[in-house]
Amino acid sequence: MLLNLNFRVIGETLPEFWVGFVSTLSISLTAFAGAIAIGIIACAMSIQPSRLVRAPAVAYVDVIRATPLLAQLYFLYFGLPSFGVIMPETVIGIIALSINSGAYVSEIIRSGIMSIPHGQVEASASSGMNYWQQMRLIILPQALRPMVSPLIGQAIVLVKDSSLLSLISVLELTRAGQTLANDRFMPVEGLATTAVGYLIIYFGLKLMAAAWMRINHPSERH
Amino acid sequence: MFLEQIHGIAQYYPVILKGIGVTLALSFIGIVAGTLIGFVLGIGRASSHKLLSLVVGAYTDIFRGTPVLVQVFVVFFILPEAGIELDSFTAGALALSNIAACFISEIVASGIRAVPIGQVEAAASAGLTRLQQLRLVVMPQATRMIVPSLVGQFVLLVKDSSVVSAIGLLDLTRSGWIIVQSVPNGMLVFSVVGIGYFLICYPLLHLSRRMEKT
Predict the structure, then answer these.
(1) Membrane-spanning regions, if any (chain A) (predicted)?
(2) 3-state helix, strand, coil in chain B (%, to 5)
(3) pLDDT at residue A222 above 80?
């Protein structure tokens, strides 16, 4: 069944797939930037001494991690209009992806910060620096290194998750495949091309992660 | 108004219960089948036989690199082209079991690789066959590292199962989609759906965190 693919049709519809591919990439990039911003804020809140500040951040991370993205997406998609908020589907999708990934990014940042030897934190505290100086000069530079691989992993998850936006009729890679499948009755060609598009992004990010590991952690074997 | 809507949602409780049942059934089939197949694939992936390891790695990469939604569509729309007719529940269970197996295989393989090489050499010099080394020395140690991640995989699977609503299967997410057609308050309806998932997933998340600490 994979041997008699109609490559002529795939060739003809490649421009539509390219649009979907670029859309998936730009949605993912925008949402990832949003996720980093939300993740930094949520993480900063979750390591504060005050319980009042911590609680909302911890609750946010737990609620997001214990519920599916699709339910979160529908929550906004069906929920915003009932409050009179009308937005394009793509924007709703990007917001949902950012909020969802933000919870995971927050956890990644937190474990990066936790991985710093406690002596470093105490030494920076006793050096007379204020909180932001400690963060900027001592804590973050050491915490960032172990975050890189998990962040690339989260980027992979985000790109795959963005396929759910096809269910609220955003034109991206999955939707492009469905369109070919439905309009021309060619489910095999449509879904195969879509899958190849995701695999290109997946292996690209995987190679990046591997290259980073080789440069920064040459001692570990993979 | 708000109370009316709560009452409206409450009237749909059979639909919600059926949805929770389908979500749990799919996740349960997925984790059982996925663990069994995942262990077999993982042993192949960690094998010193280069070709076997490569083939398993390529197979799991294809499914780890594409969205669950696309895979559900492939099973539901493409297998019939090859003459395999599936109802939506079987298609969903098949897609979820396969994706769970692919992720678990990678966990199992890294668990096996984490067993110190000296252990394997000692077992070999004690005269154990390859199979005995695996069964008596490697797997018992690897499994201890694998179990916490398996609980995390189960949470992922419960969440991923929501995607089967796209092929018309009445799971917990689909039940919300149905209710929202007649109770026009998306946030309220999907909060109820979210609470359903939260009650299933949160205890498991908590368990996996506690296991990883010990």
Answers:
(1) 20-45, 83-105, 191-213
(2) 85, 0, 15
(3) no
